[in-house]
Amino acid sequence: MNRQPESVSPVRHPESGRKYSRDQLEDLAGQGDPWALVKLDDWDQYTAADYAGSRRDRCPDPSCDQYGERVTLCFGDDGALLEVDHGGWSHYPPQEQAKAS
């Protein structure tokens, strides 16, 4: 008995000149598209490093469970403290701290 392999739907290849979001790349990579896999690897290796915080500061919010732990403080163009980034999660600064900056 000679069976033909089941037909697998073709992988959608990227369109020339089109920009893809990370979600779209993940969808293509999930379908086995090698181009998308390489683009995700590039993202993880190069681009994601731009978004990694320094974690040189300490959490200034006494009401935070991780008060005093290492964080990255995110400031606006005017120097105001906008966000306290704990790495996997973040929160707004305490009101007194945001006004003082």
List strands and helices in order, with pairings.
Blueprint: H1 22-30, H2 34-50, E1 57-58, E2 70-75, E3 81-85, E4 90-91, H3 95-100
Antiparallel strand pairs: 1-2, 2-3, 3-4
Helix pairs in contact: 1-2
Structure summary:
By secondary structure, the chain is α+β, with helices and mostly antiparallel strands. It has helices at 22-30, 34-50, 95-100, and strands spanning 57-58, 70-75, 81-85, 90-91. A four-stranded antiparallel β-sheet has the order 1-2-3-4.
Structure, described:
This protein has 2 domains: 19-52, no CATH class; 57-100, no CATH class. With 101 residues, the protein is α+β, with helices and mostly antiparallel strands. It has a 4-stranded antiparallel sheet. It has 3 helices and 4 strands. Strand 2 and strand 3 form a beta hairpin. It is 32% helix and 15% strand. It starts with 21 loop residues before the first helix and ends with a helix. It is elongated and about 50 Å long.
